[in-house]
Specification:
This protein is mainly α. The protein has helices spanning 6-18, 22-29, 33-40, 47-57, 61-74, 89-98, 103-122.
């Protein structure tokens, strides 16, 4: 992959802001400096690398989780969540799965969801 990914761009900017070299960033995250260089050049990071990055750069538990979610979105592993709405983990997982569906698959899932909603009303 050529060019910088959203995650790679974020990491590059964060390292510049903190004055970190590739080797220092790699040590902070717990990966090789070659991995950091590849990510900054546009390679797709592994989910574990994203988790380690959030752990390394987040301040506390809640911030680390929020950062991990944001970084997963930047890396293309997750779909961006609606603004101003809390999304349950199950709904988030569903959104991630259906984001890659074709129109016919979305129509099928929608019909099934409507069927389930109708069944729930009849209870």
């Amino acid at each position: 992959m050529q060019g910088t990914s959203g995650f790679g761009q974020w990491l590059k900017q964060r390292c510049e802001a903190e004055g970190l070299s590739l080797r220092q960033a790699a040590a902070k995250i717990g990966v090789s400096h070659g991995t950091i260089a590849k990510i900054m050049d546009g390679a797709s990071p592994a989910p574990e690398t994203i988790k380690r990055t959030a752990q390394a750069f987040g301040k506390d538990g809640n911030e680390k989780l929020a950062l991990e979610d944001s970084l997963l979105i930047l890396a293309g592993y997750r779909t961006e969540r609606p603004k101003g709405k809390d999304v349950s983990p199950d709904m988030g997982r569903l959104m991630d799965v259906v984001s890659g569906f074709s129109n016919s698959q979305i129509k099928m899932v929608t019909r099934f969801a409507e069927f389930l909603a109708e069944m729930e009303k009849e209870k």
